[in-house]
Amino acid sequence: xxxxxxxxxxxxxxxxxxxxxxxxxxxxxxxxxxxxxxxxxxxxxxxxxxxxxxxxxxxxxxxxxxxxxxxxxxxxxxxxxxxxxxxxxxxxxxxxxxxxxxxxxxxxxxxxxxxxxxxxxxxxxxxxxxxxxxxxxxxxxxxxxxxxxxxxxxxxxxxxxxxxxxxxxxxxxxxxxxxxxxxxxxxxxxxxxxxxxxxxxxxxxxxxxxxxxxxxxxxxxxxx
Length: 224
Description:
This protein is an alpha/beta fold. The chain has helices at residues 10-14, 20-27, 64-77, 95-101, 119-124, 141-152, 163-166, 200-218; strands at 2-7, 32-37, 50-52, 60-62, 82-92, 106-111, 128-131, 185-186, 189-190.
């Protein structure tokens, strides 16, 4: 898989990809992640990527020309399955979206800034718009890092145990059940006996029951 990220702050984005699971995936060549500084596609001496809104109003708007030049260069080199724009008014990211995106070969992620991008960018180039929640960030970079993490961890070979991702919260529409590890007893707090029984059929039944109970208590909206 190849992910191309268009941003005005590549230095803000790089650190998550230089550690942990994301770095391991890149080192194992399971994914390529490339950063493209939008200021390198400007035609003015000031490397300006934003301008005032037509019609007035507070806040600057990202200009269409540098975005067009960057996306056009990338799409001339390969076919892309999705061109994603990170924006607060996009579709809220969920596990099913990440599952679908993890099956693709090439994607572009455009990070918004200021008051957003010229609407013509969204009309002409963007195929999918994603939000990571109902709040506003200073830019799309942190959202793009979150999106990439949710996708990359699903790629075959990234996790040491590939079945781990399949039992995460939301994969089956439920929250994950509680989990425990050694010691079996700590300061009077005991691990449930069923988990120590070795009866894996009963253990799975217990986990499913607890997943439903936890979802009902914490996220009943998922059961509607």
